UniProtKB/TrEMBL annotation:
<comment type="similarity">
    <text>Belongs to the universal ribosomal protein uL18 family.</text>
</comment>
<dbReference type="InterPro" id="IPR005484">
    <property type="entry name" value="Ribosomal_uL18_bac/plant/anim"/>
</dbReference>
<comment type="function">
    <text>This is one of the proteins that bind and probably mediate the attachment of the 5S RNA into the large ribosomal subunit, where it forms part of the central protuberance.</text>
</comment>
<dbReference type="GO" id="GO:0008097">
    <property type="term" value="F:5S rRNA binding"/>
</dbReference>
<comment type="subunit">
    <text>Part of the 50S ribosomal subunit; part of the 5S rRNA/L5/L18/L25 subcomplex. Contacts the 5S and 23S rRNAs.</text>
</comment>
<dbReference type="GO" id="GO:0022625">
    <property type="term" value="C:cytosolic large ribosomal subunit"/>
</dbReference>
<dbReference type="GO" id="GO:0003735">
    <property type="term" value="F:structural constituent of ribosome"/>
</dbReference>
<protein>
    <recommendedName>
        <fullName>Large ribosomal subunit protein uL18</fullName>
    </recommendedName>
</protein>
<keyword id="KW-0699">rRNA-binding</keyword>
<dbReference type="InterPro" id="IPR057268">
    <property type="entry name" value="Ribosomal_L18"/>
</dbReference>
<keyword id="KW-0687">Ribonucleoprotein</keyword>
<dbReference type="InterPro" id="IPR004389">
    <property type="entry name" value="Ribosomal_uL18_bac-type"/>
</dbReference>
<dbReference type="GO" id="GO:0006412">
    <property type="term" value="P:translation"/>
</dbReference>
<dbReference type="Pfam" id="PF00861">
    <property type="entry name" value="Ribosomal_L18p"/>
</dbReference>
<keyword id="KW-0694">RNA-binding</keyword>
<keyword id="KW-0689">Ribosomal protein</keyword>
Length: 117
């Protein structure tokens, strides 16, 4: 068995904790790249994406995709889409990313937008 990277170990640990505590709530999954940030609400029971938003979207109007401002705009846009889909309680999946910077900005903006986690 190959040795896992720290990122992969963290991602697996976070995912197993989320599965234990989800209680049927959708998962707010975050992916952060060097240039952009992506977020989606996933219904794991049905295997479907409920809503998605990223810094590439037209409704997220920003000059740069790799800033905390962009992440906050993505969080607010996703919260609005979730409200429209009838979702208000989610479980936050940060993947293997540390909870600071852009990931934290997205989470805080989603909370301000009305999502509970």
């Amino acid at each position: 068995m190959a040795k896992l990277s720290l990122f992969e170990r963290r991602r697996r640990r976070v995912r197993s904790t989320i599965k234990a505590r989800a209680a049927g709530r959708p998962r707010l999954s975050v992916h952060r790249s060097g240039k952009h940030i992506y977020a989606q609400l996933i219904d794991d029971a049905a295997g479907k994406t409920i809503a998605a938003s990223s810094s590439l979207d037209k409704d997220v109007k920003l000059s740069s995709g790799a800033t905390t401002d962009a992440a906050a705009a993505v969080g607010k846009a996703l919260a609005a889409k979730a409200k429209k889909a009838g979702v208000d309680k989610v479980v936050f999946d940060r993947g293997g990313f540390l909870f600071h910077g852009r990931v934290k900005a997205l989470a805080d903006a989603a909370r301000e937008g009305g999502l509970e986690f």
